[in-house]
Amino acid sequence: AVTVASAAFQMELDTRHDKYERLVKLSRDITIESKRTIFLLHRFTSAPNGEEILNESEVKLDAVRRKIKQVAQELIGEDMYQFHRAISPGLQEYVEAVSFQYFIKTRSLISVEEINKQLIFTMEDKEETTNMTSNSHDKQPHTWSLKVTPVDYLLGVADLTGELMRLCISSVGNGDIDTPFELSQFLRQIYDGFTFIGNTGPYEVSKKLYTLKQSLAKVENACYTLKVRGSEIPKHMLADVFSTKTELIDQEEGLP
């Protein structure tokens, strides 16, 4: 009886391990596709037709959501937290991509509820028929969802700030003087929000606070330079403004 029990236990462990590996692979795919979407969205500032870029990014995000649907299917009936480490990197990257697109469209921050609303999946007809034949006794639910955890959301938003800083640099490069000021305000609000959570939040979140502070300082400094020097400042000099400011922050913080 003991050997039967241990064999069953071993089988369960193997199954769990295989599932974990599949989720790690899916998470990697989600990360890659989300990064590609972010890369595409950066062309928005210089594209003659921004609408096309947004439409293309929507197609890409739909493809990412199809991958997330596979993750959700793997997790039906499972405790998500046992597999959270496998899928967290992909979900953070997805949050970053989807919130970047949302910011470009609305100049505001997408909520975690809004993100999760798009992660409710239904079974398509063709899936249903194949399931009926293969395992009719093991009926899957018709709708299921995957919830991005508050921590994944916060970490994704923290990474978004780095993209917004790049957006600021490229806007200035394209002679768009308004965007940096909008970004500066927006980043300040995010930074204040993170400071409010402060050290009470998870360690990874407080670690991101430093990078966030850097991004904010760079953007605010560029805005200051624009305000004082106006648009006559050569564009390449603004890029220098961004880099020198980082060094100053590093010295202030006493970081290597």
TrEMBL record:
GO terms for biological process: cell differentiation; spermatogenesis. It is found in: Cytoplasm, Perinuclear region; Golgi apparatus; Nucleus. There is a cross-link at K245 (Glycyl lysine isopeptide (Lys-Gly) (interchain with G-Cter in SUMO2)). InterPro entries: Translin_C, Translin_fam, Translin_N, Translin_sf. It comes from the Eukaryota. Pfam families: Translin (PF01997). Mg(2+) binds at E96, E163. One of its GO terms (cellular component) is perinuclear region of cytoplasm. One of its GO terms (molecular function) is sequence-specific DNA binding. Keywords: Cytoplasm, Developmental protein, Differentiation, DNA-binding, Golgi apparatus, Isopeptide bond, Magnesium, Metal-binding, Nucleus, Spermatogenesis, Ubl conjugation. Gene3D superfamilies: Translin, domain 1, Translin, domain 2. Acts in combination with TSN as an endonuclease involved in the activation of the RNA-induced silencing complex (RISC). Possible role in spermatogenesis. Belongs to the translin family. Ring-shaped heterooctamer of six TSN and two TSNAX subunits. Interacts with GOLGA3, TSNAXIP1, SUN1 and AKAP9. Interacts with the homodimeric form of C1D following gamma-radiation. Interacts with TSN and C1D in a mutually exclusive manner. This is Translin-associated protein X. It comes from Dasyornis broadbenti (rufous bristle-bird).
